[in-house]
Design goal:
single chain, 309 residues, alpha+beta, Pseudouridine synthase, Archaeosine Trna-guanine Transglycosylase, Chain: A, domain 4, 3 domains, five-stranded mixed sheet, elongated
Length: 309
């Protein structure tokens, strides 16, 4: 993964979000600390969740969808025997059960949650229902139904099962849109019990891992020592094919102009087959500066998203 240390105006910084902070609060703190106006996060973490929160600075904000859409890894702890209104430790108890499944019984239900599944999101979520946030309706005790949505569970592992403590710990690798709180709820139901999440930690998002994340409480000291390390824009584009372009093409793409494939081929420029077939590709200068994400339509190369670097 490419890093840069000399320029904090464009790139990615990965924060290890602490307990109790909202993602927006973290963004606000980092914005003030770095003096950066253009900043955003790639994937919300609830206040009771911790872990990897990628922050996009400057031109990296244009690439947030590429991180939000990536797979994610979470470690979470399910407490058996009590369900809550929020499906985590913040809510009111809504259901109880005296049955605590054995380790074998938990392992037996795991396969039913692998692959493509349908999941009903938690009512305390930011999804909209008739123009209003679901959590707002839930706080008002409004009666409403959230439709199930398709999600993909790449992997689900039972890490620890303590029947005496009424807790099980899991690791899940999942797609965009997966609610771990709902997954825990459904595991408990499938096990003939009920339960809720008591700890939730995101350890991986796309190319970013917890090992590379900066503790929020350490960031001010790191900034003061001018040792902030950013991941480059290209860090999130490893899976996209690259086309190295000359200065004249880079300049025209910078102006948003389309480039005739036929004309450039006649000039001797070579377009590899993987570029001609790719839905989108990255255009780089010879020194690997990202000029644009582009696509080919009607015999021309067009800018899908341009960058000012």
């Amino acid at each position: 993964m490419k890093k840069q240390t000399n320029d904090i105006s464009n790139g990615w910084i990965v924060i290890n979000k602490p307990l109790g902070k909202t993602s927006s609060q973290v963004v606000g703190y980092v914005r003030r600390l770095l003096g950066i106006k253009k900043i955003g996060h790639a994937g919300t973490l609830d206040p009771l969740a911790t872990g990897v929160l990628p922050l996009a600075l400057g031109e990296a904000c244009k690439l947030i969808p590429y991180v939000i859409g990536a797979s994610k890894t979470y470690d979470f702890t399910l407490r058996w025997g009590t369900a809550t209104t929020t499906e985590d430790a913040e809510g009111r108890i809504s259901e109880t059960s005296d049955f605590i499944p054995s380790k074998k019984e938990v392992l037996n239900v795991i396969p039913s949650f692998l692959g493509n599944i349908q999941q009903v999101p938690p009512k305390y979520s930011a999804l909209k229902v008739d123009g209003k946030r679901a959590y707002e309706l839930a706080r008002q005790d409004k009666d409403f139904i959230l439709a199930s949505r398709p999600v993909h569970i790449h992997s689900l592992k039972l890490l620890k099962h303590d029947k005496n403590k009424k807790e099980s710990s899991f690791e899940v690798i999942c797609s965009k849109g997966t609610y771990v709180r709902s997954l825990a709820r459904d595991i408990a139901k499938k096990s003939s019990s009920c339960g809720h999440v008591v700890t939730l930690k995101r350890t991986h998002v796309g190319p970013f891992f917890i090992e590379n994340a900066i503790l929020l409480e350490s960031l001010e000291e790191i900034v003061h020592k001018e040792k902030v390390i950013l991941f480059s824009l290209l860090s999130v584009l490893d899976d996209i094919p690259a086309l190295v372009i000359g200065e004249h093409i880079a300049q025209r793409l910078g102006y948003g102009q389309k480039i005739s494939i036929k004309t450039e081929i006649e000039k001797g420029f070579i377009f590899p087959q993987e570029i001609l077939k790719a839905p989108v590709f990255k255009c780089l200068t010879k020194d690997h500066t990202l000029v644009a994400l582009a696509k080919i339509e009607d015999g021309a190369m067009r800018v899908d998203r341009g960058f000012n670097l």
